[in-house]
Amino acid sequence: CFLLRGYSIGVRLIDDFLARSAVKKCCSYSETTDMIAQVAFKMYLGVTPSVICSSAAGNEFSLILDKNPLVDFVEELPAKRASLCYCNILCGVIRGALEMVHLAAEVTFLQDRLKGDAVTEIGITFLRKSEDRKHKRN
């Protein structure tokens, strides 16, 4: 439920992000992930997560949030809803925005402060192999 809502937000949010941030095209998955962490999170949530590359292939990354503003006013999840991933909306937003710029990715929560983890960790796995294309101008 939260993932689908987040996806819809991400699909629409990317236009605002591109218009307001004036960023240039990213050339690698690493650059894209850094842009998400350093520009997008700062712009919309006021935090800057750290980025960790977690694969030798360079297509898997983790965003580590020491502070997650979405949980500031959440005291505790109800016992009947303990499996609810409240902040899964962030995964949907990231996935939706990436798809709108033609980057297929799997985005999942790996750690969640609401479930007792020390940090919030979002995993991003880019699904297509990075292509090295050189554009020729006529």
Automatic annotation (TrEMBL):
Belongs to the TRAPP small subunits family. BET3 subfamily. May play a role in vesicular transport from endoplasmic reticulum to Golgi. SUPFAM superfamilies: Ligand-binding domain in the NO signalling and Golgi transport. GO terms for biological process: Golgi vesicle transport. This is TPC3L protein. Its main location: endoplasmic reticulum. PANTHER family: TRAFFICKING PROTEIN PARTICLE COMPLEX SUBUNIT 3. It comes from Brachypteracias leptosomus. The lineage of its organism: Eukaryota, Metazoa, Chordata, Craniata, Vertebrata. Pfam families: TRAPP. It is found in: Endoplasmic reticulum; Golgi apparatus, cis-Golgi network. GO terms for cellular component: endoplasmic reticulum; Golgi apparatus; TRAPP complex. Keywords: Endoplasmic reticulum, ER-Golgi transport, Golgi apparatus, Transport.
